[in-house]
Design a protein that fits this description.
By secondary structure, the protein is of the alpha/beta class. Helix content is 45%, strand content 13%. The chain has a six-stranded mixed β-sheet with strand order 3-6-9-12-14-15. A five-stranded parallel β-sheet has the order 1-4-7-10-13. Strands 2-5-8-11 form a four-stranded parallel β-sheet, with no helix packed on it. Helix 2 (19-34) packs antiparallel against helix 3.
């Protein structure tokens, strides 16, 4: 009986352990000590809250609030979505860790939550996507509009995006309605996952797990990009990309192997030797 009571009493405490959130709070306290002028911001954004969900809801609401919809209303929407869709909170944790691991400019888990618009925009998209799946399309479109206005990133709420996403710099990202992005994908600024015309069916790219998409790359149409592939900066991809390959050029062509098991994690964007350019560009 004593053992049963002990297990029952400690189980809720174990469920409440969140090492990611604990570390963020510790980093916020440290940042406060280093820069007292940020004390109010750090307290309202992090230290005032008991959970990561509360902090995310507050941060997203603060960023997206306008004269059209108040911070309080947006906070209520965010809190409700996090409570009823715990998967989007788990995705946020994976995104935080991905940014810290892959972005050399990120030295604390606190930074994406506080300062990185790529992370913030993706979390706001996740709430909009949850609304979209519930059939609350107008409110989902509102989230899309405000994310575009506030962050310069346009992600349709109907798009499907996996966990462990890192969008570096993040300016001018466009992801279309029927696009699918797998887990552990990294992309840089000015990436477009778009369509090729006015068709109203499944018309956007399907990006596999572990893919690295360089700055300014455009992937257009209902095509597949295989797992753990690399798309070089500035490329225009119009045809399917096999797994574990590197493509480059306009239009993009296969120029070699991906070079490693997880391009999105290593973030190696260099092409070496005869892989530096597609064959037709090398010969010109």
């Amino acid at each position: 009986m004593g053992r049963s009571e002990s297990t029952h009493n400690t189980a809720p405490e174990l469920r409440e352990i969140d090492p990611v959130w604990t570390r963020i709070r510790e980093e916020a306290a440290e940042a406060h000590g280093e820069e007292p002028l940020l004390g109010g911001l750090l307290h309202s954004t992090v230290l005032h809250h008991k959970t990561l969900a509360q902090a995310l809801g507050y941060r997203i609401a603060l960023k997206l609030a306008s004269g059209e919809m108040s911070e309080q209303l947006l906070r209520e929407v965010a809190d409700d979505m996090y409570q009823r869709h715990p998967d989007i909170l788990q995705a946020a944790r994976a995104d935080l860790v991905a940014v810290e691991e892959r972005d050399p400019a990120c030295h604390r888990l606190l930074q994406p939550l506080m300062y990185f618009k790529g992370f913030q925009a993706v979390q706001a998209y996740r709430i909009g996507h949850a609304l979209w799946k519930e059939g609350r399309r107008d409110l989902a479109y509102f989230f899309q509009m405000r994310v575009s206005e506030c962050f310069g990133i346009d992600i349709h709420p109907g798009a499907t995006i996996g966990r462990g996403i890192m969008i570096d710099h993040a300016h001018s990202i466009v992801i279309g309605e029927t696009a699918v992005v797998g887990d552990n994908v990294s992309m840089l600024h000015s990436v477009t996952l778009g369509g090729t015309g006015k068709e109203d069916e499944d018309r956007h790219p399907k990006i596999g797990d572990g893919v690295l998409i360089g700055a300014g790359a455009k992937v257009l149409g209902n095509i597949k990009v295989g797992h753990c592939s690399r798309i070089a900066a500035g490329s225009v991809v119009l045809q399917e990309v096999p797994p574990c390959k590197t493509v480059a050029g306009v239009p993009a062509k296969i120029v070699g192997e991906a070079g490693c098991d997880q391009p999105s994690v290593t973030m190696d964007q260099l092409l070496s030797g005869k892989q530096a350019l597609p064959a037709d560009v090398q010969d010109s």
